[in-house]
Amino acid sequence: MKRPLISAAAGAAALIAAPAGAHVVLNPGQAAPGAYYAGAFRVSHGCSGSPTVALKVTIPAGVVTAKPRPKEGWTLTIEREPLAQPVTGEGGQTIRERVKAVTWRGRLPDDEFDEFGLMLKLPDAAGPLYFPAVQTCETGETRWVEIPAPGAARPATPAPVLEVTPAAGGHDPMAGMHHHP
Q1: What mean pLDDT is reported for the chain?
Q2: pTM, 2 dp
Q3: What's CA 177's distance to the chain center, in Å?
C-alpha cells in the first residue's frame, strides 16, 4: 500500500496509528527524552505463512542501557559492544559497554502473535529512534530495517520506530520514573 507524501508530524502520527497487521512494531510507540521506557516489539505474522523462529533487534547507538525481557520457551542472546567513553549509570556504577543487539529464538506459528519486551534508558535528545529488526522464519526471513527519508512515503519493510518527544506541559519527564520494581 502506497501512502502520499505527508508532513513529518502527520507521518509520525501515521506510523503510530497504522495497523500493526503487516509489520513488526514497537508498542508503545512514543516516550519522553531521558525517560526509562518499557515496551515490546509486536510480531503479528510469520513469513508468507511460515512460523517465526527468531527475532533479532538492533539497538540504536544513542541507547546506552537496554535490557530484554526473557520469554518462556525462547532462548535469548545479547550482543554487547564497548562504549567509546564510559558513562555513569543509575546507582553510580560505571558502564563500559552497551547492548547492541538482542535475539530471541523459539517458535511462533503464523496464525498467532506475540510481543518481545525491552526496557531502555532513552537518550536526552528528541527524535525518532529506529530499531532494525530481522524476523527469521522456518522458511525465509523479513528484514524490517528500512528507515524512511524525511517526507518520504512509508517504506515496504519499515524498521520499528520509537518517537522520542518532549512531554506536553513542560513537566519533568523523569518524575516518578527513577525506581523500577
Answers
A1: 83
A2: 0.79
A3: 19
